[in-house]
Amino acid sequence: MKQIILIFILCLTQVSATKIKQQYAQSKYCIGCHKEQGKDWITSLHSKSHLTKNTLYLKILQYIEEEKFIYKEVEALRCGKCHNPRMDTKDIDLSYSLSKAYGIEDENSKKIDAILNNETNKEGISCIVCHNVDKINYKSDDLSKTDKHKKYTLARGYEALTFGPSEIMVGPYKESFRTTHHKMKQGTHFRENVNTLCFACHYDSKNKRDVLTYNTGAEYEQSKSSEKCVDCHMGKYEKNIISPRVISKVKAVNRNTRRHLFSGARNSNIIQDAINISVKNKNNSLLISLENKTPHKVPTGFAGRELEIEIIYLKNNKPIKKIIKRLNTLYLNRRGNETISYIATELKYDSRLKTKEIRKYKIQNITGATSVQINIWYRLIKESLVPLLNIEDQIFLKKYLIYKKRLKL
Ligand code: HEC
Ligand code: HEC
Ligand code: HEC
Ligand code: HEC
Ligand code: HEC
Q: Which residues of 70-80 are buried (b: 16+ CB within 10 A; e: fewer)?
């Protein structure tokens, strides 16, 4: 009987099914040979996907802990499905919460702390996360007969990923034998089907109350775009030798390569390319038109983002009236107060720009104004959530300028 219980506990605390060999477990071991990929990736959000690397992520976990009494470590394991997909932990929350609540450090809680804070997981979406993906899994009911686009809709994060042996790097090319450090394998999810790799985590997600928290992949499919996620977020193909410093008898081939920026507002100018903007003064009204150029919403992804249109009327260069329009989401809790998507009971509204949408605003000019200033900003976290989450980090408080214009009236 004792043995059975022991086996049962071991099963519950089962970690990653495929163990990563030490020499592949951290990006620093890749960057020695793959400097170009490494120096881009480190600037991306993918490298910051862990509670020790991202203060917004941590603040949200702390907020959930206060509101729902769920230990942040326990919630982090759930979020880790996408944020730290090599964590691959199962139902450990109950025993962990109990040992935390009683302040007991047992084998189990030590193990969970170790999983959460091991060096691979701390690196978030690292080289070995993407390049060790052997297959993208669909659940059987994902394979809808009527709409073949809908086949990625159920499995998420690690559920959607089968990892291969850690010495085989899956990528766009076949084995070249230029290095003995690792093997190579070609995967269609790095070539024609590369969107399916991104969809594993970026498709959509709902919270326990069935409220939508993410939807980028589903938005993208509605757009019927032929551009791939990587065309914009990893840039156009360049010709390069991969790992040029490796000396080998096998001749190096000039390959198509892409930047590993996974561009966002923080590490690129990508938000400047998001919308076509036109501003006119006609018949004593201000006409503003915003056209979404991306194949997903703007903003998309994390539901806390915000676009802010700031219209300032001036008289002889002195501001006399300010009008603000916000494009964002509003999530409510049971009591009808604003909260974050992950624990909301309702998505009250979503005023973000839809794919292909052209949004028009007509604003009656203010009498006496001699000019008007229009600024369009992007915020990583909407203003009304800042006090709620107690955000202090400048990276998240900063407003990113997309557009500005001054018109004489
Ligand atoms: C000793 C140098 C070296 C180290 C260390 C190294 N690589 Fe490589 N890698 C290479 C070389 C050489 C190639 C082959 C380039 C070619 O054929 O064009 C390559 C190819 C690749 C490819 C392309 C695979 C394909 O099938 O298209 C990927 C992906 C890759 N490496 C990822 C990694 C990752 C991830 C790590 C760390 C876990 C790593 N590499 C560590 C030298 C290295
Ligand atoms: C035509 C270029 C283009 C393509 C194709 C594209 N995007 Fe984007 N993406 C953008 C632009 C521009 C932004 C910045 C504006 C914004 O935040 O929405 C962006 C923003 C994002 C963001 C950050 C959003 C935020 O505000 O937090 C994510 C995540 C993202 N895209 C994922 C994807 C995925 C996944 C795909 C493929 C399914 C994809 N994108 C396809 C242009 C593109
Ligand atoms: C989010 C997933 C993801 C992560 C993380 C990632 N890669 Fe890649 N990588 C890709 C994709 C997708 C391609 C294929 C791009 C293409 O050819 O369209 C690629 C291509 C490559 C290639 C082939 C040449 C090139 O640059 O296009 C190498 C080598 C490589 N990656 C190494 C790395 C290393 C090293 C890291 C960590 C520092 C890393 N990758 C992190 C998705 C990823
Ligand atoms: C294993 C899950 C996973 C995969 C696969 C993945 N991503 Fe991500 N991606 C994430 C997570 C999680 C974040 C946010 C990280 C954070 O800040 O905690 C993110 C962030 C991003 C961002 C940054 C947005 C911003 O606001 O700056 C872009 C762009 C992006 N991913 C594009 C891609 C593309 C393109 C692919 C496919 C080649 C891809 N991702 C594959 C999980 C994934
Ligand atoms: C279905 C996969 C998935 C799950 C589950 C998930 N996330 Fe994410 N998360 C993402 C992706 C993809 C992004 C990148 C989108 C973007 O940047 O807009 C992201 C981005 C974020 C960001 C923005 C980070 C930044 O620096 O801007 C935060 C914060 C975040 N997630 C917190 C959480 C928390 C907390 C949980 C658990 C309650 C969670 N996520 C669960 C996929 C997921």
A: bbbbbbbbbbb
Per the CB < 8 A criterion, the answer to whether 219 and 202 are in contact is: no
Instruction: Please provide residue 79's backbone torsions phi and psi, each rounded to the nearest 5 degrees.
Output: -60, -30
Predicted confidence (pLDDT) per residue in 351-381, tens digit? 999 999 999 999 999 999 999 999 999 999 9
Confidence (pLDDT) at 90: 57
pLDDT mean across residues, the chain:
90
To test the pocket of ligand 1, the residue of 133, 169, 191, 249 to mutate (highest count of ligand atoms within 8 Å of its CB) is: 169
Q: How many C-beta neighbours within 10 Å does residue 261 have?
A: 18
Question: Residue 269 CA to chain centroid, in angstroms?
Answer: 17
Instruction: Name which residue leads in pLDDT, 337 or 94.
Output: 337
Q: Per the structure block, which two tokens stand in for 5?
A: 């219980």
Amino acid at 384: S
76 lines ligand 1 (CB under 6 A): no
Ligand 4 atom nearest the C-alpha of 305 is 26
Residue 150 has pLDDT above 80, yes or no: no
Reported as a pLDDT band with limits 50, 70 and 90, residue 139 is: low
Among candidates 84, 98, 47, which has minimal Cα distance to 261? 47
Angle at 326 (CA atoms; ends 323, 327), nearest 5 degrees: 150
Q: What number does the ligand 2 atom closest to the CA of 305 have?
A: 26
Residue with tokens 């709409």: 147
Cα(34) to centroid of ligand 1, in Å? 7
User: How many Cβ atoms are within 10 Å of 316's Cβ, its own excluded?
Assistant: 9
Alpha carbon of 358 to those of 91, 176, 270, 378: distances in Å?
46, 48, 19, 18
With CA atoms as reference, report the closest residue to 186 among 250, 255, 85, 84: 255
* For the CA of 252, the nearest atom of ligand 1: 18
Distance CA 130, CA 127 (A): 6
Q: How many angstroms separate the CA atoms of 16 and 198, rounded?
A: 21
In angstroms, the CA 195 to CA 227 distance is 10
